[in-house]
UniProtKB/TrEMBL annotation:
Identification of the protein by name: MoaD/ThiS family protein
A Pfam family it matches: ThiS
SUPFAM superfamilies per the UniProt record, alphabetical: MoaD/ThiS
Superkingdom of the source species: Bacteria
Length: 80
C-alpha cells in the first residue's frame, strides 16, 4: 500500500500535480523529502497546515502516516 499526498491550492501548481502516492509509512522528514524542494519550503512555513486521516495536525512535524492514509497539504486560506 501507499500514502496519498494531496496538494491543494497553489501547492498543486508548485508540485505540478494534484496528488501523489508514495510508499508508507511517512514521517515529517520523509514528507519533506518526497514533495520537492519548493513545496517543502512552503510546508515549513507556520501558515501552511498538514492534515492526516482527515484531521489537521496541531504539530505537523509529528506526522506519522501509515499505509492507506491520506495527507492533505493545506495552504493558507484567503478571503474577501
Amino acid at each position: 500500500m501507499a500514502v496519498t499526498i494531496l496538494f491543494l491550492g497553489p501547492l498543486r501548481d508548485m508540485a505540478g500535480e494534484a496528488a501523489r502516492e508514495v510508499p508508507g509509512p511517512l514521517d515529517w522528514d520523509g514528507l519533506l523529502a518526497v514533495v520537492g524542494e519548493e513545496v517543502a519550503g512552503q510546508l515549513q512555513e507556520a501558515r501552511v497546515n498538514v492534515a492526516c486521516r482527515g484531521k489537521v495536525l496541531a504539530d505537523k512535524t509529528a506526522l506519522d502516516a501509515q499505509d492507506g492514509d491520506e495527507i492533505a497539504l493545506l495552504p493558507p486560506v484567503s478571503g474577501g
